[in-house]
Structures are given as structure tokens and as C-alpha cells.
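Question (not urgent): is this output format expected?
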Amino acid sequence: MKLLKLLGVFAALALLHGCAAIPESHKLTYEPQVDVAAVDGASEVSVNVVVADGREDQRRISHKRHGWGFPMASIHSEEPVENVLKAAIEQELLARGFEIDGDSPVIIQGDILELYSNLHLIDTLLTGKTVGKSTIQVDVMSVANERLFSRDISVKPEHKGVMYQSASNLARPIEMAIEETLDELFNDPLFIEALLSAQR
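Got this back:
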């Protein structure tokens, strides 16, 4: 029985090892929130969304691992991650009735402090999992340049059942992290309240 279990572990490592030496890129996608209602007064507020990526390596979002655990080829985002986050925030604002204006003095400032995905080679007997680690700071600045809202949102999503190392499997926690971050942000009444009062 122990031998079968050991063979299963080696089989899982062999599957996950795959083409660990070959770098890949991935186009990040964002799944918007559903059943979103318009916010009263939002149509009177124009917002400028500005996102900065403070990570040292701004293109890399993950890396593959050798069967024994050490890092190998990198996984990169096909477009700047800050552009993906900016577009996602704007999409959620528009869904709630806010206006987007790149010249508006009402600013949502997003700062990507940490956003990365790691492969855990063993999750179950035959699969691994990829785990994201993300911290994004969001500020809302008013017309008078006052900070009305500030929050750091940290999430650690897991993508389970990974059978092989691919760009999509390794990038999925990044997409999940952005989705979970915006879920928390737009469900925070203080964030919505700050936006509604920022133009006064």
C-alpha cells in the first residue's frame, strides 16, 4: 500500500513537472460581478482611475517549478497588470452608474504592492494547486485633493486540481485575486460613500 502511494506521488510530480523549463505568457481576463445595481447619485460623479504597479518585476506573475520544488521558467502577463486592474475597476464603476473621465479630479488610486502566484506541487495524491498572494492599496481622492478613503486589501486565492504546469493554471490565482479584491472593495460601503462625496 505504501509503495502504491509512493508511486502515486512520483506520478503526480512527473505530470506537474511537464515543460517546466519553457517560459510562457498569459492574457489575464477579468470576470465582472453579476446582478450589480446602479448606485443612487453615481451618474453625477466622474472618476479618474489611476493604477501603479510597485512590484520589482512588473511582467512576471508566476513561475514553474521543477519536480523537486525549485523555481524554473517564468510566467508573464501579456499586458501590463496595472492595465488589467484599471480596466476591471472602470468596468465595475460603469456597472454602478459612475462616469469615467481621465481628467476628473476625483481619483481612485490603486497601487499593486504584491501580486504573485506560486505552484504547490502536491495538493492531493495526483494533483497540485496554485496559490495567489495579493495586496492592493486603494485610495479615493476628492476634488479638493483630500483622501476620503484608504484601504489595503490582501487575498490568497487557491486554484485546485492542477494536473500540469501551464500559463493558464499558474495565472488563474492572479485573476481570482483581482476578482476577490474588487468584490471586497465594491462591497465596502465606505468606498462607495467616499466616491459619492468626492465631487462635493
